[in-house]
Design a protein that fits this description.
Number of helices: 15
Largest sheet: 8 strands, parallel
Bound molecules: flavin mononucleotide
Helix content: 40-55%
Shape: globular
Strand order of the largest sheet: 1-9-8-6-5-4-3-2
Distance between the termini: 21 Å
């Protein structure tokens, strides 16, 4: 066989083996062959998408969001009916029924629980660990990463501000440099703005054990997101996914990254009107703050499920520019792996 045909096969096999080594800690921790987690997305990360990700070799995560214990139990059972592969459940720490939700996960033998939306309370950490599940927590900084490990986190996610949904202020590139070289006790998964396998590879080489992606999976064939929501993703470029803007420092707005639409523009006007009503003495400061916080209530559902992408909240990461078509979940995962392998193989051939 001529060398130019034989060589790529050899280098591709070697590259696949190298990739398997690079994310072996992540795959062992998650119990799946591909260390790519489907980031939990409220309304979107339900049984169909979660099972599709796990069936494709990745690790799906149910977004509990505001579901109560009964709905969560049904969603877990529905997912288990579609896959016998491991998957996780993401719970918001501020949920008033957090301990009941943890119990539901443990009773259903969910092996991995992600606690999101703040530093997990000690009682929740103990409940997860005592119940035999593995605890995954988000960290926004190195000092908190160390504290979370001391308090029992089995793995960490570092999510950069490129991500869709609620975001912190620091980009993944900076978080990766700040945190990856110093955390060796537990696997660290990277998230935010990832849409190409070569970028995932670079982060694995920096010490990550795997990656978490949301935006690309939201537009997958198996995602129940409304066709208009998926179309908005396909049409958008990275620069269309912007963080929400806070008009007045007296009325804080939690930054959420999403596609700019009529709702985003109305939110700015609403903040100005609400501030003016506060200044005119028509509203107390608390009432004004509450009104601003409630502006987006139900807005993700309106966009993602009802398809009102003009007025709802079209949460999306900067990775949205890498969503170019509605693809089967297995195709997305295979593409990411192939991109990482191709990049590695090219390096091996260049040696
Ligand atoms: C539509 C949407 C909804 C999301 N909802 C949640 C959520 O409920 N809980 C959570 O922890 N993260 C949520 N995220 C963040 C994802 O889990 C994931 O970390 C993020 O999407 C990664 O960045 P990427 O979108 O650039 O891939 C959401 C993201 C999107 C795009």
């Amino acid at each position: 066989m001529p060398p130019d045909i034989a060589t790529p096969d050899v280098s591709t096999t070697a590259a696949q083996a190298k990739l398997d080594r690079l994310w072996s800690r992540g795959t062992a921790f998650l119990g799946c062959p591909v260390a790519i987690m489907g980031g939990a997305m409220s309304w979107v990360s339900e049984r169909h998408l979660v099972a599709a990700i796990s069936n494709a070799g990745g690790f799906g995560v149910i977004a509990c969001g505001s579901m109560g214990p009964d709905l969560l139990a049904a969603e877990i059972a529905g997912t288990q009916a579609q896959t016998d592969r491991p998957f996780g459940v993401n719970l918001i720490t501020l949920h008033p029924q957090l301990s009941d939700l943890i119990r539901v996960c443990l009773e259903a033998r969910v092996g991995h629980i992600v606690l999101a939306g703040g530093i997990p309370p000690g009682a929740a950490v103990r409940a997860v660990k005592d119940g035999g599940a593995r605890l995954i927590a988000f960290t926004p900084a190195l000092v908190l990463a160390k504290r979370l490990i001391r308090s029992g986190a089995d793995a960490l996610v570092i999510e950069g501000s490129e991500a869709g949904g609620h975001i912190g202020p620091v980009s993944l590139m900076v978080l990766a440099q700040e945190i990856l070289p110093h955390i060796h006790d537990v696997p660290v998964f990277v998230a935010g703005g990832l849409g190409h396998g070569e970028a995932i590879l670079a982060l694995l080489e920096m010490g990550a054990s795997g990656a978490q992606l949301g935006t690309r999976f939201a537009a997958a064939t198996e995602s129940i997101a409304h066709p208009r929501f998926k179309q908005a993703f396909i049409r958008a470029s990275a620069r269309d996914a912007l963080p929400s803007v806070q008009l007045d420092e007296r009325f804080p707005v939690i930054p959420v990254r999403g596609l700019v639409n009529e709702g985003v523009k109305r939110f700015l006007r609403f903040q100005a009107e609400t501030r003016d009503r506060f200044q005119a003495g028509e509203l107390s400061k608390e009432a004004a703050q509450l009104a601003i916080e409630h502006f987006w209530a139900g807005a993700l559902r309106r966009a993602a499920i009802d398809g009102d992408v003009e007025n709802g909240s079209v949460m999306a990461g900067q990775s949205v520019g890498m969503v170019t078509a509605e693809q089967p979940t297995a195709g997305i995962i295979a593409e990411l792996v192939a991109q990482a392998v191709a990049a590695l193989a090219a390096r091996i051939r260049a040696i």
